[in-house]
Amino acid sequence: MATVQISDDVERIQERFDAVRAEVGKVLVGQEALVQRLQLALLADGHILLEGVPGLAKTLTVSTLADAIEASFSRIQFTPDMLPGDVTGTQIFNPREGTYSVRKGPVFGNIVLADEINRAPAKVQAALLEAMQERQVTLGEHTFELEAPFLVMATQNPIEQEGTYPLPEAQLDRFMMKLKVGYPSKDEEVRVIDRMAGAGREPKAARIMAASEILGARSVVRQVFVDDKVKRYAVELVAATRDPAEAGLAELENLIEVGASVRGSLNLVKTAKAHALMGGRSYVSPHDVKSVAHDVLRHRIIVTYEAEAENRDADDLIDTILANVEVP
Question: H-helix or E-strand containing 48?
């Protein structure tokens, strides 16, 4: 009976999230993969780091998704002169009454876009990352819980290095996934011009899902079945990034400086469960694990100078690992 119930729940949730993607597609051209990954993050209760050049509709994608799920949206443009209070909020002194009042910052939203996070100094980055991890903010003597669902999508520009503060590897690990966004095809770009520069009004997504539905969907994600063999497969993939020789990949030994952490294994399984649910299944297959492996692991692998000299990045190494680790 329980199996029938979860199957019905999975089908219902799949239909609802398909409807959200269709609604977002009325505004956006392309970006289906990005929207799907954002939905995975919402289901798996994780955060996203997005790497891409400016002008690829990152802000529009996130704000449109927030419109479709009736969630509050806020955007933080990071700059070198920011203070932690610009993210979390601050206390304001009232001299007439001799009291302090709290003014909450933009981090108090269901979906938060942290634009160009690597432009802000370490203290500001740490304030956001602490809120991401603890799901709460302390202002003076008061601690405020961040309302669920809470998703941070941080962006960084891969081509600019001046005036930036790269996120430390330990902080990168706090993001569930790192996504790469490229340019649209020529046909898609023409459709963007027609839609956004035409004579009509710019389209806007309708609200078709309540944010509370996401919390219910998360409880179903936790019930998605993962066989021990699939768990072992996820762990073997992550272990191969730490000790390639033991996995029979001695040629990668000098190309990986640091492999993925235990958090990598955990997020690989959590994201695979959400991927299975969005595929209409109540169980995780090895294909689900492989489908999310690049997004979950690419920012958790630090390549050596030798790898850079050979033009091998983390994605190349993950390809090699996926091709050689035995699938159950």
Answer: strand 48-51
CB of 179 within 8 A of CB of 49? yes
* HSE-CB for 7 with a 13 A CA cutoff: 4
Contacts of 168 (CB under 8 A, 6+ apart): none
Full-model pTM: 0.88
Tokens representing 308? Answer: 């850079």
pLDDT per residue as tens digits for the range 198-234: 656 777 888 888 888 898 899 999 999 999 999 999 9
Q: Which two tokens stand for residue 315?
A: 């994605």
**Domains identified in the chain and CATH numbers:** 2-212 (3.40.50.300), 224-324 (1.10.8.80)
Rg (CA), the chain: 21
Task: State how far the alpha carbon of 309 is from the alpha carbons of 151, 255, 312, in Å.
Answer: 36, 10, 8
pLDDT, position 204:
81
H or E element at residue 326 = none
Distance, CA of 27 to CA of 22 (rounded, Å): 9
* Both structure tokens of 169: 């590897």
DSSP label at residue 225? B
